[in-house]
Amino acid sequence: MAGTFEEIAKRINQTTVGWINYYGIANMKAFIKETQGWLNHRLRQLILKRWKKPKTKYAKLRQYGIDHDDAMKIAYSRKGYWRLSRNEIIHRAITNEKLTKWGLKDITQLYELRYLRD
């Protein structure tokens, strides 16, 4: 995906909000929660992949509050982006709250607000 993270989040939000509005009347709370987890995982992979060089990965992880040893483990790992994005260290660096703060809408919350009012 090309573009800034804000542009990507905007496009994802357009799709997910439209999708929730169309299919949201179905009872799919578990499916929505699973989809939100997958989407967050995929975005962490995308962010990690955009950092490319180990030096950049290390600097960004340090910027997001990860200590030296853990940042080095991730920055210089030979594992793939998908596997690394599942790591607990990446979850501490790129939290769900940060993704929301950067413009990604929480579809679980959106679904609950719209259809689970009872």
Automatic annotation (TrEMBL):
InterPro entries for this protein: Mat_intron_G2
Q: Where is the Group II intron maturase-specific domain?
A: 4-65
Protein origin, superkingdom: Bacteria
A Pfam family hit:
GIIM
Q: What is this protein called?
A: Group II intron maturase-specific domain-containing protein
Organism, per UniProt?
A: Lysinibacillus pakistanensis
Show the taxonomic lineage.
Bacteria, Bacillati, Bacillota, Bacilli, Bacillales
